[in-house]
Specification:
Low-confidence stretches: 186-216
Structural class: mainly alpha
Largest sheet: 3 strands, antiparallel
Strand order of the largest sheet: 1-3-2
Shape: elongated
Length: 216
């Protein structure tokens, strides 16, 4: 029998085969507590952002029209967006009682920002509309606010802005009715009216039928 030389190289020992990999488990769904925590974090972030927008609006108002309050500015924006409206409808749109709306209209009229007249077609109704000075006031305040918001947005990294736009659009769409603008709200409560103080030319039968068809 041949004896193996102990100095001769030994064949490498074969490595044991690797055990088969365990099947990967599917990712677990977030628990209700995780979802609640996430919803709370988003809620806090949205509320903080809303306070920031209000603060920017207040600064813009103080810088350009320190004689106005934010509710008075809202009233001017409604008139700028919707045109002449009834006093009662203005109160409904702003969510205030008619007496509060009347005091607000009187204050804005004293500043030559709002024209307040009795509806000649219905003496019990008061019609409000912006004066040229009121429109100029709205334009200046909103332009100032937009400039401040844009300066803040430009401080964000590009990648943050890219995800912020779809997130804010999704939030607005989720609000549905709550996201309605002034025009939609005024239409809902019946505020859009013909301007009785500056009536349009009479409509022809054809145009009247077209208008009725578009509303249907």
């Amino acid at each position: 029998m041949t004896r193996q030389n102990p100095d001769s190289p030994q064949p490498p020992a074969s490595e044991p085969p690797e055990p088969p990999a365990a099947p990967s488990s599917p990712p677990s769904s977030p628990s209700p507590s995780d979802l609640d925590r996430e919803a709370e974090e988003v809620t806090v972030a949205v509320m903080a952002a809303s306070r920031l927008v209000v603060a920017i609006s207040a600064r813009a108002l103080a810088s350009t029209a320190d004689v106005l309050t934010l509710p008075q500015l809202r009233a001017l924006v409604v008139l700028s967006t919707c045109g002449p409206v009834k006093l009662a409808t203005m109160a409904s749109t702003l969510g205030v009682n008619p007496s509060t709306a009347l005091r607000m209209a009187e204050r804005l009229e004293s500043l030559d920002l709002v024209d307040r007249k009795t509806n000649p077609d219905n003496r019990r109704e008061v019609v409000l509309r912006l004066t040229p000075a009121g429109q100029d006031m709205v334009d200046r305040v909103l332009t100032h606010r937009r400039t401040e918001v844009r300066a803040l947005v430009e401080r964000l990294p590009d990648e943050t802005r890219a995800v912020l736009v779809p997130a804010l659009k999704a939030l607005t769409e989720a609000a549905d009715v709550l996201a309605a603008d002034y025009f939609d709200e005024v239409r809902r409560v019946g505020a859009l009216i013909e301007d009785p103080l500056n009536p349009a030319p009479p409509t022809t039968p054809h145009s009247a039928r077209s208008a009725r068809g578009s509303r249907g």
